[in-house]
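Box 4.2: Ligand-aware structure prediction
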Amino acid sequence: MILIVDDDKAVRLSLSVLLKRAGHDVLAADGPETALDAVRGHRNSLRLVIMDMNFGRSTSGEDGLELLQRVKVLSPGLPVILITAWGSIPLAVEGMRLGAFDFITKPWDNRMLLQQVETALTLTHDVPSDADTVFDRSAIIGHNRALTELLDTAARVAPTDAPVLILGENGTGKELVAQAIHANSPRRANPLVMVNLGGISQSLFESEMFGHVKGAYTGAGADRKGRFEMADKGTVFLDEIGDLDLSCQVKLLRVLQQHTFERLGESKPRKADFRVIAATNADLWAMVSDHRFREDLLYRINLITLRLPPLRERRDDIPLLVEKFAADFAKTSGMRTPEVSAEAMDYLCRLPYPGNIRELKNLVERTILVSGSPRLEASDFSRNANPTTTVGETGRPGLGSASLDDLERSAIENALRLHRGNISKVATELGITRQTLYRKLEKYDIRR
Ligand SMILES: Nc1ncnc2c1ncn2[C@@H]1O[C@H](COP(=O)(O)OP(=O)(O)OP(=O)(O)O)[C@@H](O)[C@H]1O
Ligand SMILES: [Mg+2]
């Protein structure tokens, strides 16, 4: 079955007639929402989508590009032919880059169109229409339901160029997921360029991201490629995107829209072909309503949103993670993998983990290193755990009736006392970034 998507009834009708005469089953949709419903509802019988690029009054093609990407997420193997207005070749090219099979321009030649349809149907015949292509998740440990669902979505988007936004608290594995998406994408042979936008100043942002020519500013001794250029044909990972200031957000938006930029000190625009994955632990929607994050930029980067659960919401994975971290650490330090007693595992499954998986990993490694014993007991871990986790009088983690917020607050207060208010040390100890620590100090109104 072929799905026709166009808001113009005349176009739907004439295409339907043409395709039916050629012996095809046809389904028509008048806009993006109905089209997506049709793709969802007929996933197994749909063989091709022919879609217009503009819906309603918009003529930029943005709606079409977005619909294309959404279709590709739902059904990566389903070929899409774009209908573009005559003369809008750049749009068609962008569409192809995003995974369209082909494009036709209005007004079309019937014979040509049927030929293109046949080609699309034959060439993609054996491609599975659903995401049963393999996604290598071997680096990511866990069977938790929320995590598995997230990885299923990641598997669907990996082969496309759709921008992905990864959300989650510190240490939940955002970077790991970004790496897996890149490694499972057609761009895998090309670079994954990581950029940490946390605390980057405006001038640094421009020279880092766009590059500069010799003499562009004092100290610019030689020409330098920016990160977007380095990522050509690959992926850019924009980490801590919530920390970017508003003026840099404008500049970033422009690049994401046009894929062109200029090196500092040069007026010639350069082009680069990159896919964007962004990550943050900030609530970008709240920031949009506070006017601290641009809505249009958010819209650009979050075509697909992946939310990583905090470790306290996926405690079922703790034993698996502990075993993996213990085995890996023992291997790299040339030791035998220590055994973790049942009681110790029980203890580890109850800790609050404000620093999530990173905190658990640090704890396991620290304990192996410090105890040096072939069998690890709960007391070995509690001795090396964060301050909160050792306060319980029974020797058990102080979960009791305390809320997670209480535990987090006292973990921070204890660590502050221990490190005499040294923020860097406290952040390292808790396995969170300094920015996060400052946010939490503010949240709990803790004074140093
Ligand atoms: N599911 C997982 N399986 C195995 N290791 C994991 C998993 N998730 C995270 N890790 C490990 O935990 C550590 C933290 O992960 P990562 O750096 O990806 O987190 P993050 O969300 O980017 O953190 P931050 O917000 O602090 O930058 C890394 O050492 C990573 O390898
Ligand atoms: Mg990270």
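In the box above, the bound molecule is magnesium ion. DSSP finds 19 helices and 16 strands in the chain.
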